Amino acid sequence: MTKPLFQNTLISMAVFAALAASAGAQAESVRFATFNASLNRDASGDLLSDLANPLATGGVSATIANRIQQAHNVAEIIQRVNPDVLLVNEFDYDQNGMAGSSSVPSAAGYSSQAAKLFQDNYLSASHGNAVRGTTSGVNFAYRYTPTTNTGLASGFDLDNNGAVAGGNDAFGFGNFAGQYGFTIYSKYEIVNVRTFQNFLWKDMPNNLLTNDPTAGANNLSNYYSPDEQAALRLSSKNHVDVTLKVDGQEVHFLTAHPTPPTFDGAEDKNGKRNYDEIRFLKDYIEGADYIYDDQGATGGLDAGAKFVIAGDYNADPSDGDSYASAINQLLNATLVNTQFTPESAGGTQAATDPHNNGTANASHVGDPKFDTADFSDSAPGNLRVDYVLPSANMNIEGGGVFWPVDSNQTDTNNTGELFDLVGTFRNQNLYANLPSSDHKAVWLDVEIAPVPEPETYAMLLAGLGMVGFAARRARH
After folding, report:
1. What's the CA dihedral at 170, 260, 344, 370 to 10 degrees?
2. pTM to 2 decimals?
């Protein structure tokens, strides 16, 4: 073999080896999930005490026993979904075991005591029975629990009832500080956190607080005083960007829980706030420069960033009470992958369940198989309000909604089948009228292509450099 031919052969082998190493790396399939689990409680500290007593010992009341069983049902659902990354909405906040919340952001890596108790006493424990089978515990190595605006006193009469008191006058509705917060569990390392709890609503360009197109007294500029407009925060709980390290690259898990667009008056203050809370995330993924976080940084995501939006957004694309089809701001965004919509057979069945207390579902435009929440059937009916939305630069492999079908709609939902974990709306014998939550767990499996190892890049670059060197030698 001649020397040039031998050199070219070695070069080709180096290049092909590098390409083979890069191609041989398998894409990671990561399951992202969101679950409004209704792990909020009616009194401050109750969630902590419930999660610390998984066996319901000490002669607890039937009400407390039902609350503890509800937490077990929630844990079993999570185990059956078995997500890699999970957002739990409606999870009361505590600061190192002290119930309450704060305007000072939680440090990166902070886990509330309730989040730890839920992992140790519920998620790590086996659940199930002989009918639906048993589950194994699921362990999340990383957690983050952000502070929340819910229940934090604003000092203003935000509902204009003549008194400054109660949940309606808090920065986000809550009967006590920390109620209705949320927490995040992950099997992947959390490498950075940005929170937006203190971002002021007025600082969003063209917001609906100071730029409301509604005429007259129902214009929010007329409803709220100038001092209130200057102080109001956009986020009813928090908007949080948790950056995960997945197979060598960063993925932004974007979490929120916008206020329901109801429980207000003709001014529709909650509907308009819900719209702008959702819009904030659209602006964030598009890199809007007006944004500032609680940590002192500015701007949104960089171009090309990978992200997954998750949460209960209290907005259905075609039904319900949302302002100006608020969720379509995300569903129609070019940077969001909406090629796959999670569904369930249970959602279809629930639309016409004989236990329904009304006929609102019959007038809905949306297909009930996409519903994620079992609301009152007199109004608003079942809706799609819970979302997992990856960026358009990642592929969706599949997904679903944990809403099993009821094999016998005439029984009392205590036979032990999967359906008994979700039940039907308004079962008065259960905590919050349901075995787990009126919302259902939603998940997507997302393909995340690996980043080649540094040595693979080095091998490829060296091979290409040798090709260039050989080509120059050949010309001379």
Report:
1. -150
2. 0.91
